[in-house]
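Renewal narrative, Specific Aim 1. Our central claim is that a sequence can be written position by position from structural information alone. The example that follows is taken directly from our test logs and has not been curated for this report. It begins with the structure tokens describing the chain, in the order in which they were read.
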């Protein structure tokens, strides 16, 4: 099978996601893709492009970098982006979810203009950047919406493309599945929007970043509502029978604890802020605290961060019943994110 080459601007701006826990600024790019400051705010309306539910089965990991210099700021002047990032990243929880299949949907009606398939679903940390040979987008689809507007969908699963060049698609048409192809180390959709070949931030097409921006931009009302800006979000919670790692959380499908195993509660959050303090408390069925873990205040914003709290196996096993974990993020003395989850032993 032959694959049509994809040749377009914007591929270089696909994702170079967080390494380990850090969100370190990357070295200044020699050239930075220009962000249109004059793009019309009307003319294209985008529906949410993934068959997932933000807050439940996906989150926005990154927005477009709106800082014209070597720094990185999203459209709200926040840190939910990184240097020269040219799109919006919608992230699913783990590779288990990717394997189960999450559809990518055309964001607006149009015609399939270009595509590429055949890139393996292997994390760039494993494959190496050199092996990408410039195919940062991985498997991708470009949809032409007319009047100079196009959308590009990156990191699609190999062999999952459901359309061919020339096909007409409606808003919401499934076009592929989320994968791990190209310059990425976690499964997500990278969506780039362009007008007349210039990248446009769909959340706020005009002006500089603004902490008061609604982010509605080109999005339909339901999409804008779903994508309401968050300074931090919980991507994964769960229990395991042994200590976990970032890689194990990313893989998904962790073995559940048993009455005879250790008991570990874990959380992975994204886009936390410098200064944030995280607490994770695990309580027994009778309400007694089994263990509490508190992380020191974060030294800077973190693209992703995981923590756990647990205890080794008990001599006579864990008493039967429901164990409840509570995770809280405190910012400026106030709880800004909280999540409770439980497991029955
Ligand atoms: Zn991206």
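The sequence written for that structure reads:
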């Amino acid at each position: 099978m032959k694959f049509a080459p994809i040749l377009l601007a914007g591929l270089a701006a696909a994702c170079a996601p967080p390494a380990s826990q850090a969100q370190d600024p990357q070295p200044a790019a020699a050239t930075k893709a220009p962000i249109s400051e004059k793009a019309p705010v009307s003319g294209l309306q985008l529906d949410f492009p993934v068959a997932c539910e933000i807050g439940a089965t996906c989150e926005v990991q990154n927005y477009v970098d709106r800082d014209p210099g070597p720094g990185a700021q999203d459209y709200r002047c926040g840190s939910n982006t990184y240097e020269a990032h040219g799109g919006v990243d919608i992230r699913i929880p783990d590779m288990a979810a990717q394997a189960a299949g999450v559809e990518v949907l055309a964001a607006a009606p149009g015609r399939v203009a270009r595509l590429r398939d055949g890139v393996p679903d292997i994390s760039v940390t494993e494959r190496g950047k050199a092996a990408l040979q410039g195919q940062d987008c991985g498997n991708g689809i470009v949809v032409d919406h007319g009047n100079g507007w196009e959308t590009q969908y990156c990191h699609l699963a190999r062999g999952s493309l459901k359309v061919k060049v020339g096909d007409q698609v409606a808003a919401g048409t499934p076009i592929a599945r989320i994968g791990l192809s190209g310059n990425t180390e976690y499964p997500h959709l990278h969506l780039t929007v362009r007008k007349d070949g210039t990248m446009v931030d769909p959340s706020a097409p005009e002006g500089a970043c603004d902490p008061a921006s609604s982010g509605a931009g080109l999005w339909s009302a339901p999409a804008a509502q779903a994508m309401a800006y968050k300074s931090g979000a919980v991507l994964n919670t769960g229990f395991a029978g042994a200590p976990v790692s970032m890689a194990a959380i990313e893989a998904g499908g962790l073995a559940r604890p048993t009455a005879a195993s250790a008991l570990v509660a874990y959380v992975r959050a994204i886009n936390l802020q410098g200064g944030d303090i995280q607490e994770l408390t695990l309580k027994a069925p009778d309400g007694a605290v089994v263990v509490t873990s508190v992380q020191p205040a974060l030294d800077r914003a973190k693209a992703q961060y995981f923590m756990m709290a647990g205890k080794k196996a008990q001599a006579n096993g864990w008493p039967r019943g429901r164990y409840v974990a509570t995770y809280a993020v405190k910012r400026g003395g106030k709880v800004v994110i909280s999540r409770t989850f439980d497991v029955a032993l």
